[in-house]
Amino acid sequence: MNKKGAEGFLWLKVFYFILALIIVILLYGFLSGKLSSIIFLGYASREIGMNIDAVKIFDDGDVKITEEFKEPLYLEIKDSKVNVRSAANNRSLEYDFFDGDNEVEYSSGDKAYKKFVIEKNEGGVEINGR
Amino acid sequence: MGLRLMGDEDAFQQSKDTVSMIVVIPVIFIFIILTITLFSRFAVKSFDVREVHHPLLMQRAVLSSDCFSDGNEIYAEKFTSERFENCLKIKGRNIGIKATLEYDGKKKEIYDNILMTNRDFLCHGKNICSDERYFVLVNDNGIKKGWINIFVIELKNE
Q1: pLDDT band at residue B117, thresholds of 50, 70 and 90?
Q2: What is the phi-psi region of residue B142: left when phi exceeds 0, alpha when psi lies from -120 to 50, beta otherwise?
Q3: Positive or negative: CA dihedral B35, B36, B37, B42
Q4: Is the interface score ipTM higher than 0.90?
Q5: Do A31 and B39 touch (CB under 8 A)?
Q6: What are phi and psi of A44, to 5 degrees?
């Protein structure tokens, strides 16, 4: 191999290294972003689902649960399912809870909230975003 | 040092590198896609909170006025499968709950999701079963001491 060939070979190795570095950084950034978002949404949906099941144990107004999350969320509850959607990246996740006679329905509409208050009133479970 | 043309060996080496690059680059991308897919699946699966969720269902069955109780005592006439199915709606899920009330020499068994009756043999692997026994006061023409046993079986969806 001549000098030009050796130089070309070296640059190719440098290119491989930079390419590998870029791939690792992008992959790490993507995975860490996606994972933390999934973990957060998974936590939020399960937490709200279990909060609803918990307040249903008690009589009207006995227990009021206030949940405050680190990010604002769109929340929709229908057909025994809690659907949370991140306001930051629009990802969403669903979790099932156990409804009863008075079915729980709620939608935060086009407003995302960080804080949700869940309590059982005469009409059933009431949820309010703040 | 004089210039030297690429020899057969070098040419062979270079063509080998090119061929390996053609193979390695798609392999890297396949690896990336696989990693992302697997990570996403496992991240969601690791949130299995069924073991935390079951005690809430049991407490609800025992204490909620939507089910059989007024928060203090269980009313024997409210202890029916129909009422149970309405207070804890299963809605086609792979879960079944059996409640057994024992008091004054009497024993009553009710079910929420009759399809899951006698499925105790499935309590292994990824299926989760919970069994709890609570001391209760039963109102059946007067207050009596009794026990309620709640058994929950939940099968893994996949």
Answers
A1: confident
A2: left
A3: positive
A4: no
A5: yes
A6: -65, -45
String of b and e for A6-32 (b: at least 16 CB within 10 Å)?
eeeeeeeeeeeeeeeeeeeeeeeeebe
Nearest to B89 among A38, A59, A98 (CB): A98
Name the residue type at position B139: N
pTM for this predicted structure = 0.77
A41-91 pLDDT, tens digit each:
989 999 999 999 999 888 777 789 999 999 999 999 998 899 999 998 888
A115-124: average pLDDT:
87
Closest residue on chain A to B68 (Cα): A57
Spatial neighbors of A3 by CB under 8 A, at least 6 apart, are B1, B3
Phi, psi of B15, rounded to the nearest 5 degrees: -65, -30
